[in-house]
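Quick log. Single chain, no ligands specified.
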Amino acid sequence: MSLQLGQIAPDFEQDSTHGRIRFHEWLGDSWGILFSHPKDYTPVCTTELGEAARLKPEWDKRHVKVIGLSVDPASSHKGWEKDIEETQGQALNFPMIADADRKVSDLYGMVHPAADPLLTVRSVFIIDPAKKIRLMMTYPPSTGRNFQEILRVIDSLQLTDRYKVATPVNWTKGEPAIIVPSLSDEEAKQRFPQGWKALKPYLRIVELPKD
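-> predicted structure:
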């Protein structure tokens, strides 16, 4: 199945380390991050899971729920969790989906036969409260995911949902944004009474209120 941005994230029901999960019901009105791992007891993913758990205060600030996935059963996940806590100094605090039948992996296109017909690739999906997919990323096995970038994208998505703006290259929370070209100057005056700096008619830089 080929997923696209803006599409409703496929719903599913599957076992996890936190019991049976109905995905849409579990998400509720939160943002969500679904990220997959090739298999349990893999070194790079061990570091990633520890970091994702360590960032719980940041996820909570942004109203984000995190959920992992591996093709191994829940009993194997439980053993891996002990290794993660021991080596990363952080216990897992979110569910890990047990996708032994690859139902979720197939729904989300996480199995790439040219890479490995049996294991999931290392994908990330950001899903908004309307259950729409807002970001998809796939990493190579040798490169650990950058969770600061994932946080940055969530900050950008939440900002751009709130205002008629886009965020420029290397943007981080609190920095100026760009007024979208579809918004006329007259409309922009209503939305941004503080004014903006026009570098070009299509490139209007605006300072937004600090949250």
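The chain is about 30% helix and 20% strand.
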